[in-house]
Structures are given as structure tokens and as C-alpha cells.
Design a protein that fits this description.
- The structure holds two protein chains of two kinds.
- Helix content of chain A is 34%, strand content 28%.
- In chain A, the strands form three sheets. Chain A has a six-stranded mixed β-sheet with strand order 5-6-7-3-8-9, with helices on both faces. A four-stranded antiparallel β-sheet of chain A has the order 11-12-10-13, with helices on one face.
- Chain A starts with 10 loop residues before the first strand and ends in a 5-residue tail after the last helix.
- In chain A, a hairpin with a 2-residue loop joins strand 1 and strand 2.
- Chain A is α/β, with parallel strands linked by helices.
- Chain B is globular and about 65 Å long.
- In chain B, 39% of the residues are buried.
- Classes of the chains: A alpha/beta, B mainly alpha.
- At the A-B interface, helix 1, helix 2 and helix 3 of A face helix 1 and helix 5 of B.
Chain lengths: 319, 244
């Protein structure tokens, strides 16, 4: 098993481009993912996410630039890299005629696990993905949710240190999305996970860091808060108290960083720069003036908005 | 490679198409066996090899052309359609392992089907003393021909994602290799003359007569190896271009 040496990133892309004929699907893309990180890979449909993930999984090499998996080249050291990566392709393809058990045994053999480890490896992923009851069912008769689980089981088989998951929740109903999300959450630990999606709430719930691409280029990278700061995202507090918005506005007018006060139904919505401790400020103001506070809450930083700003602001159409 | 080999065998034996094809093959080969034997007895011929086995093996050979494309069409085209081909490319087995596994699985399935027809000579042997040499040679010829046809079908299947297109094109290519020598007069002059020795089906003639010619064996092995080599190239080229 390939384990990256200390300090060597699990995944590294340097100036990677991939061209299909006249179309450049990925352009000059660089990012690194440290061992043990859970990273969300975001972008609108057609942004080049799947192309990038396929290069990582060794489906095809980049046209220019270098890809490194734990410091190794997926083209020239293919076998080593392929053993280190569990890949979940979009739509979780599998063979409908085989049973779950037959399929996973095939995967264990194809991943060249030693004969003695195979039964244990298959049992482990059946358990981890909640497929125990489905072991004797034909893949073709499984529901979409179970088929996605089988795709994850396939990627997890052999316990690779790096997981590359391409849209594992696409096409599922909301309860199945939650199930798969919980499953991915349990995959944390010492694994490195790169998880692509075009749905932000998902990535926000699962990942410590996000990489955003659009039009084949990197448009943003960092934690949700870092991205927000860079884009001038606002902190927002919703407050309900027995003072009019006007009174509140005049009380907060002198404070630096408060950007706007609007009323929303019977509540007041206050926006401020990210470095203002807004909730505390509003609370203290209310106390000082003797206003009765009925509700005070901070809205979570919406990645959705950051994402839309990133994507719409920088995306260029393909030539 | 054994992973792909076992998976392909499982898929063959869980799908109804193999059983349907094997049944058709067995019925037709039984028909050929019966009618050829009937003819042989009716005309009171003396030489079992030239009067019976030759005809029987040449007839059975035609059945292979019906059987093989239906068995090879799904080999790669189906995986491409399902999207599992992409997944195979991310496992450590490698392209050569995938191709070898698929080729061997299909050849084994054909060997089994051919093996089942051995019931006919076995039944004959109970009532008439048989010299088994020509029978073994005949079957060897059929198996080598089958392997060559499989390599051809595998290559065609690797070039498309439609099983129907794969089957149709394989029929076309195999028929072409069959009929190369039919119009000998048109063929004997110019560049077409070079094609005649490539005729796939004429190569089984010596085997059917109970002989084994190493040139024929070399030809079949080279033909199969070329087909497999081209399949490997097709895999690599399509991958690098991202066509899948």
C-alpha cells in the first residue's frame, strides 16, 4: 500500500490542462490536497470536474502539466497510484446481472488484493456501506440509493488511503442524499477524500475546504470563511426586539463595518463585514438601551452565494 | 487478468443469450452430423475421414460465424455503455489484463460449446470403431478458428458502444475473410492475389481432413495476436483522446 511520506501532499496538480480536440476541458489548474484532508470540489455542470477527477484516477493523462498521487505519477507508476485510489465514477456504473457479492469479489480481485484478504475486504465494505442485506441481490434490481452505496463500496474496497468521489449524491431523493452524506462522513479518519458536487450545501456539510472551478479554471480555494472574506461576503444577523428598525439603525450607525439594516417581516436583518462580531454588538446595544430581545441569531455563511459570485464573476465561455 | 476472466464467465453463464446460442449451435451441429452420416452410409463410402469428417467439420465451421459475433459483441461495447470500462481503467489490472481476460473467457465459452458437440462422435463410437486422431484434429482446427474470430470480434467491439453495430461489423469482417478465395479468377492477378492466403476459413481445410499443418497453426495464432494487439492499441488511443 502506498502511503505518502510526511509533507508530501496526497493529491497535487501543477498547471494541468486537458484538451479534447478543440475543446479545452481543464486549463492551467493547480491545487494540492494534504493527506487526511476532506475537500469539496465544486463547479457548475460542465466545469471540468469529472475530467479532473478522471486524470487523478488514471483514466487518462493530462495534455500538459503534472498530476501527482502521493508524489507518484499516475501514468508511469500507474499500478502504484491505482492501488492508492478508490474512485467513484459519476452514476456508479456496475454490472446489472451480477449479485452484489459477486461484483464486490470481482472488484477485490481486480484491485489485486491478496486472496486471503479478499473475503474480509468484501465483508468490511458490505458492512460499512450498509449493504449486508443486499449481498445476494442482483445489482440490476437494487434501488438507485443502494446502487450508489455499491459504488462507494467498490471505491472503498481494499481500504485505499485516497478516495476520489464524483457526484456521489446526484440523482438521489433527499432522504437518500442524507444517507449517502452520512456514509461519506463516516469515511473520514485518516483518509484523504476529494468529493465533487455542484450542490453547495452538501459540500458545506461535509468538507473542511473547497476548491471551486468554472470553465476549466480554478476560481477559488480555501475554507468557506476564507473564500467569503476574499469575496467581501457579509455576516448577517437576524434580530427581533421591541425597537423599530429606525431606532436600531441610528444606534448602530456609528459602528464601523455595519453595511446595512433592513426589516424583514417583524424582524430586522443586519449585514456587516466578516470581521465584525455582529451578534455580540447587537446584544450589547440592546442591553444598553433596555430593549427586550426576543430573538438573535447569526445566519450561517452561505456558501451558495459565494459560489454563485465566484462562478458568475469569473466564468468565461469555452472558445 | 483472472478477475476479468472470472467476471466474464459469470456474465456469460448468467445471461440467457449464451444458453440460447449454445442450444441453436448444438441443434444445428447435430443436424449436420446426422445428415452427413446418413449420406455417408447411404452411398456406402469407405473412407470415414474424407467421406464424413471432412464434411462435418466444414459444415460446423460455418456455424461458428453465426455464433461468434453474438458472443463477442458485448465484450467491450457493453462495458462502455454501462460506464464500467472507465472503472476498469482505474484498477491496477491494466489494459492487457482486461483484454486477455475477455479473450480467454470467450474462447473458453466457445471451447465448452464445441466440447458439448463431442457427444455425437462419442455416440457413434459405441456402434462403430473410430480413429480419434482426425476427430481431435478437426476440433483443434475449429477451436483455433474460433479464437481468431473472437480476437476479431473483440477488436470490433472495442471500437463502438453499440452491441448491434459490433455484431454487424464483426459479421461483415468475418464474411470478408471467408469469401476472399471465392472469386479465385478475379483474385489471382494484382494486389488482390495477396489477400487470398489470408482467407480465414480455408485454413481449417487440412484440420478437417484429419491433418495438422503448423503453418495453419502459426497463421491462426498470428491472426489472433494481431487482433488482440489492435484491441490494445484501440484501448490506449481512445483513452488518451478521452473518447472512452
Amino acid at each position: 500500500m502506498l502511503v505518502s511520506a510526511p509533507g508530501v501532499p496526497a493529491i497535487e496538480l501543477r498547471a494541468v490542462s486537458k484538451r479534447f480536440g478543440a475543446v479545452e476541458a481543464v486549463r492551467d489548474l493547480s491545487f494540492t490536497i494534504a493527506a487526511g484532508e476532506i475537500v469539496g470540489f465544486l463547479g457548475p455542470n460542465g466545469a471540468g470536474k469529472t475530467t479532473t477527477l478522471r486524470m487523478l484516477a488514471g483514466v487518462f493523462p493530462p495534455t500538459t502539466g503534472t498530476v501527482r498521487i502521493a508524489g507518484h505519477d499516475p501514468v508511469h507508476e500507474a499500478r502504484r497510484c491505482r492501488r492508492a485510489i478508490g474512485y467513484f465514477p459519476e452514476h456508479a456504473p456496475s454490472y446489472p446481472e451480477l449479485t452484489v457479492l459477486e461484483y464486490l469479489h470481482f472488484v477485490a480481485r481486480a484491485k489485486q488484493l491478496p486472496r486471503s484478504e479478499r473475503p474480509h475486504a468484501v465483508d468490511a465494505v458490505l458492512g460499512a456501506c450498509g449493504l449486508g442485506d443486499m449481498a445476494r441481490r442482483r445489482v440490476g434490481t437494487l434501488s438507485k440509493g443502494y446502487r450508489q452505496r455499491l459504488g462507494l463500496a467498490q471505491a472503498l474496497c481494499g481500504d485505499p488511503p485516497i478516495l476520489v468521489l464524483d457526484e456521489p449524491t446526484i440523482g438521489l431523493d433527499p432522504s437518500q442524499v442524507v444517507e449517502i452524506r452520512e456514509l461519506v462522513r463516516t469515511l473520514r479518519g485518516n483518509r484523504t477524500v476529494l468529493f465533487s458536487s455542484h450542490i453547495l450545501s452538501e459540500v458545506e456539510a461535509l468538507c473542511e475546504r473547497v476548491v471551486v472551478i468554472a470553465g476549466g479554471r480554478l476560481v477559488g480555494e480555501g475554507t468557506a470563511a476564507e473564500l467569503g472574506r476574499r469575496l467581501g461576503a457579509r455576516r448577517r444577523v437576524i434580530v427581533r426586539l421591541d425597537a423599530s428598525p429606525g431606532e436600531l439603525a441610528s444606534a448602530l450607525a456609528q459602528v464601523d463595518g455595519v453595511l446595512g439594516i433592513t426589516s424583514r417581516d417583524d424582524a430586522v436583518c443586519i449585514d456587516a463585514a466578516l470581521d465584525v462580531d455582529l451578534a455580540r454588538l447587537v446584544g450589547e446595544t440592546a442591553l444598553a438601551r433596555g430593549w427586550r430581545l426576543r430573538e438573535l441569531r447569526e445566519e450561517p455563511l452561505a456558501l451558495e452565494e459565494i459560489f454563485l459570485q465566484l462562478v458568475s464573476g469569473r466564468e468565461r465561455p469555452l472558445p | 487478468m483472472t478477475a476479468v476472466l472470472r467476471k466474464e464467465l459469470l456474465l456469460y453463464f448468467t445471461s440467457p443469450i449464451f444458453y440460447a446460442l449454445a442450444a441453436i449451435f448444438l441443434v444445428l451441429s447435430g443436424y449436420f452430423f446426422y445428415t452427413n452420416l446418413h449420406f455417408f452410409v447411404l452411398y456406402g463410402a469407405m473412407d470415414l475421414v474424407k467421406g464424413f469428417w471432412l464434411f462435418h467439420f466444414l459444415d460446423t465451421r460455418r456455424l461458428l460465424i453465426v455464433l461468434v459475433p453474438m458472443l463477442t459483441m458485448r465484450l467491450v461495447a457493453e462495458e462502455r455503455k454501462l460506464g464500467t470500462l472507465e472503472l476498469l481503467w482505474t484498477y491496477p489490472i491494466g489494459d492487457a489484463g482486461v483484454i486477455a481476460g475477455k479473450f480467454l473467457a470467450c474462447v473458453l465459452v466457445l471451447a465448452l460449446t464445441l466440447g458439448l458437440t463431442a457427444i455425437h462422435p462419442l455416440m457413434l463410437a459405441r456402434i462403430y470403431p473410430l480413429d480419434w486422431g482426425p476427430v481431435v484434429a478437426g476440433y483443434l482446427g475449429l477451436l483455433l478458428l474460433a479464437a481468431a474470430c473472437v480476437s476479431c470480434g473483440l477488436l470490433v467491439s472495442a471500437l463502438t458502444d453499440s452491441q448491434l453495430v459490433a455484431a454487424a461489423a464483426t459479421y461483415g469482417v468475418l464474411l470478408l475473410f471467408w469469401v476472399l478465395t471465392w472469386n479465385e479468377a478475379a483474385v489471382s492477378e494484382g494486389w488482390l492475389g495477396w489477400l487470398a492466403p489470408l482467407s480465414l476459413f480455408d485454413r481449417t481445410a487440412v484440420f478437417a481432413e484429419g491433418g495438422i499443418d503448423t503453418r495453419d497453426i502459426v497463421y491462426f495464432v498470428l491472426f489472433s495476436a494481431t487482433g488482440l494487439g489492435c484491441t490494445l492499441l484501440a484501448f490506449e488511443s481512445r483513452r488518451w483522446r478521452g473518447v472512452r
